[in-house]
UniProtKB/TrEMBL annotation:
InterPro entries per the UniProt record, alphabetical: 6-blade_b-propeller_TolB-like, Strictosidine_synth_cons-reg
Annotated compartments: Vacuole
Stretches assigned to the Strictosidine synthase conserved region domain: 154-242
Family statement: Belongs to the strictosidine synthase family.
Positions of transmembrane segments: 6-26
A Pfam family this chain is assigned to: Str_synth
Plastid in keyword set: no
Cellular component GO terms held in the UniProt record: vacuole
Keywords, alphabetical: Glycoprotein, Membrane, Signal, Transmembrane, Transmembrane helix, Vacuole
The protein's name in its UniProt record: Protein STRICTOSIDINE SYNTHASE-LIKE 8
Keyword Membrane: yes
Organism: Cardamine amara subsp. amara
Location (main, coarse): other
Length: 371
C-alpha cells in the first residue's frame, strides 16, 4: 500500500516502548516559538503522488511539480487543473501513480534557467536532466562527477551569471526508493557538485555528507547552502570571494530537513520531513541499530517510526545573512499537511510540496507574518 494512503503506527514496536517509557517519549519534539498555522492552508489535490519540488516559469506560470511516476506536471488553475508538461524517461509503459518504478525516473528538485527557459531536473535515478520551454522528453545533462556516477541527484540551483549549476548527489550507493536507508545507515557518501554548463566539467565542492538533501545558492551568489538530513546541519560552502573553497556550519536545524528555497529577499525556506524524536535519534546515534532496523522493517514502518508515530509538517525560514531562524511554522497534528518536502514563497503565498502525498498546499503569507 502506498505511503500516501497509509498511517503507520508500527504497533508492536510502539506498544513495547510506550509500555516501558510512556507515550510522550516517542512523540516529535515540541518547538518553542513555533506558529501553528500550516493547517490553515488550502489543499490542491493531484492525480498522482509526490509533488516533491515545485517551480514557476519565467512568465510566473505554474507551479510545475515533479511527481512519483516520472512526469512534470503544470498547474493551470482551478478550471484547467493539472496538465502534463514533461517526463524524464521514455519508458512510460509500467509507471505507477503511487509507487516508484526506477525505469520511469523520479524527478526531484526543479529549477528554471532564466536565460533559456530550460527546466533543470534532478532525477533520483537518472541524474541531472533538462527540458526546453515547450516540455516533452528531458535529456541528460550530467550523470558523473570526478569518476563517480551521480546516483541520487536531489536538488540544484543555477548561478545565471557564471552559467553554473550546483546540485546535490545524496548517495553513491542508494537511489530515491531507498531514501530511508540513506538516512538510517549513516552513509556519508553525499556530495555537492559544481557543473559548468559551458565546459561540461563537473567538480565536487563538498563531500562526505550524510544524506545532503536540499540546496540553494545565496542571493549574491557567493555561497551555496546544503542541508544534511542525517545530522540536521545546514552547511555554507563559499564559492566566491576570499573564502572560496571553504565551508562551515551555517545553522543547526530542529528536525530532519528536505528541500531549500531562497526568497526574493535572500532568506531561505527549509522544509522538514519530520521533527526530531526518540526513534530517529536512537537509529542515528547507533549505526548498528539503524542497520538492523533497515533489514528487519518495511519502509512504511520506518516512515511511521521516524515521524514519531504521528505524521506532521514543519517549515522554517532561515536568515540568508546570519543563519538565524526567523520563522517556524507547523501543522503539528498533521491535520492538513504531512510528509512535506519543499516550501516556496511567491507573491504573498507559501506553496508547499510533499514527497509522498497526492497534494500540494498553499497558504497566504499574511497568516503568519502578522502573528
Amino acid at each position: 500500500m502506498p505511503i500516501s494512503q497509509t498511517v503507520v503506527a508500527a504497533p508492536v514496536i510502539l506498544s513495547v516502548v510506550i509500555y516501558f517509557y510512556g507515550s510522550s517519549i516517542i512523540q516529535p519534539d515540541t518547538i518553542k516559538g513555533s506558529k501553528h498555522v500550516l493547517q490553515l492552508s488550502k489543499t490542491i489535490p493531484l492525480p498522482v503522488d509526490g509533488p516533491e519540488s515545485l517551480e514557476f516559469d519565467l512568465q510566473g506560470e505554474g507551479p510545475y511539480v515533479g511527481v512519483i511516476d516520472g512526469r512534470i506536471l503544470k498547474w493551470r488553475g482551478e478550471q484547467l487543473g493539472w496538465v502534463d508538461f514533461a517526463h524524464t524517461s521514455p519508458h512510460r509503459g509500467n509507471c505507477s501513480i503511487h509507487d516508484v518504478v526506477p525505469s520511469c525516473g523520479r524527478p526531484l528538485g526543479l529549477t528554471f534557467a532564466k536565460k533559456t527557459g530550460d527546466l533543470y531536473i534532478c532525477d533520483g535515478y537518472l541524474g541531472v536532466m533538462k527540458v526546453g520551454p515547450e516540455g516533452g522528453l528531458a535529456k541528460l545533462v550530467v550523470n558523473e562527477a570526478e569518476g563517480r556516477k551521480v546516483t541520487f541527484a536531489n536538488q540544484g540551483d543555477i548561478d545565471e551569471e557564471e552559467d553554473v549549476f550546483y546540485f546535490n548527489d545524496s548517495s553513491d550507493k542508494y537511489h530515491f526508493r531507498d531514501v530511508f536507508y540513506v538516512f538510517l545507515s549513516g552513509d556519508t557518501m553525499g556530495r555537492v557538485i559544481r557543473y559548468n554548463m559551458k565546459t561540461k566539467e563537473a567538480k565536487v565542492i563538498m563531500d562526505k555528507l550524510h544524506f545532503n538533501n536540499g540546496l540553494a545558492l545565496s542571493k549574491d551568489r557567493s555561497f551555496v547552502i546544503t542541508c544534511e538530513a542525517g545530522t540536521g546541519l545546514l552547511h555554507r560552502i563559499w564559492v566566491k570571494g576570499p573564502k572560496t573553497g571553504t565551508n562551515e556550519v551555517f545553522t543547526r536545524l530542529p528536525g530532519y530537513p528536505d528541500n531549500i528555497r531562497r526568497t526574493e529577499t535572500g532568506d531561505f525556506w527549509v522544509a522538514f520531513h519530520c521533527k526530531k524524536s526518540f526513534f530517529p535519534r536512537l537509529f542515528l546515534s547507533h549505526p548498528l541499530v539503524g542497520s538492523f532496523v533497515m533489514k528487519m522493517l518495511k519502509i512504511e514502518t520506518l516512515v511511521g517510526l521516524t515521524s514519531g508515530g504521528k505524521p506532521h509538517a514543519m517549515v522554517v525560514k532561515v536568515s540568508g545573512e546570519t543563519g538565524e531562524i526567523l520563522e517556524m511554522l507547523e501543522d503539528s497534528e498533521g491535520k492538513t499537511m504531512k510528509f512535506i518536502s519543499e516550501a516556496y514563497e511567491k507573491d504573498g503565498k507559501l506553496w508547499v510540496g510533499s514527497v509522498y502525498m497526492p497534494s500540494l498546499w498553499v497558504l497566504d503569507t499574511s497568516v503568519f507574518y502578522r502573528k
